[in-house]
Amino acid sequence: MNRKIAIITGGSRGLGKSAALKLAERGVDVIFTYHSRQAEADAVASEIKHLGGKGVALPLDIGNSSTFAAFSEQVKAELESNWQRSTFDFLVNNAGSGIHTPFGETTEAQFDLMMNIHLKGVFFLTQSLLPLMADGGRILNVSSGLTRFSLPGYAAYATMKGAVEVLTRYLAKELGERGIAVNVIAPGAIETDFGGGAVRDNPDINAYIASQTTLGRVGRPDDIGGVVAALLSPDCRWINAQRIEASGGMFI
């Protein structure tokens, strides 16, 4: 039986790394991208191999859409050489970065950066990879709890994530004829290096978020990686065009 193949953007660390390893534990092979830290990416590929799967790390700047055609050709070549296949099964649009700047101080350059990474990148990378996706596949976009609740300083970031949630529904509508389901996962605050690692490294921020979360703690990468793997499992094949928040009950 052929193993499923997932593509995860930003898979060398944080939530993407957890998702890659959780999928590998379930017998899914992974092509994942990294921005600059090749050593970290190689380590994740080794972990996937240790779990009995295949892991391929490819460099990608998700904020530069002019590179997507060449990246798709790289994916095509890797599929043929490593799996003797012309298609993959799952796409997880996870890569991203954040800013924390009050609305009144947000520059046009910061806005454009968030748009290029979180919205334009997701839109056009998905478009570029669609010809290589198998019918009956899945797309999972990564949003944020910040599209439901509002915290000062995240207007630009959350605006792009809100747009991704709308895009998710449109993708589900248009790709349904190919049997491709499209959903969006919205993590709450997670202990990673995202945004400079404030949630992980600042005790006051960590304690405040924990106090506002019904399960009494801040999320960890594996809390999200497990949800990603579950949503891509056969048991969740009938979930489509949905926003699934994984925040432990934050700000309810």
Describe the protein:
It is a single chain. With 252 residues, this protein is an alpha/beta fold. The chain has one domain (5-246): 3-Layer(aba) Sandwich (Rossmann fold). It is 43% helix and 17% strand. It has 8 helices and 7 strands. It has helices at residues 14-25, 38-50, 68-83, 108-129, 155-175, 198-201, 203-211, 221-231; strands spanning 5-8, 29-34, 55-59, 88-93, 133-142, 181-187, 243-246. The chain has a 7-stranded parallel sheet, with helices on both faces. Helix 2 links the parallel strand 2 and strand 3 (55-59). Helix 1 (14-25) packs across helix 8 and helix 4 (108-129) packs parallel to helix 5 (155-175). The chain starts with a strand and ends in a 6-residue tail after the last strand.
Fold topology:
Blueprint: E1 5-8, H1 14-25, E2 29-34, H2 38-50, E3 55-59, H3 68-83, E4 88-93, H4 108-129, E5 133-142, H5 155-175, E6 181-187, H6 198-201, H7 203-211, H8 221-231, E7 243-246
Parallel strand pairs: 1-2, 1-4, 2-3, 4-5, 5-6, 6-7
Helix pairs in contact: 1-8, 4-5
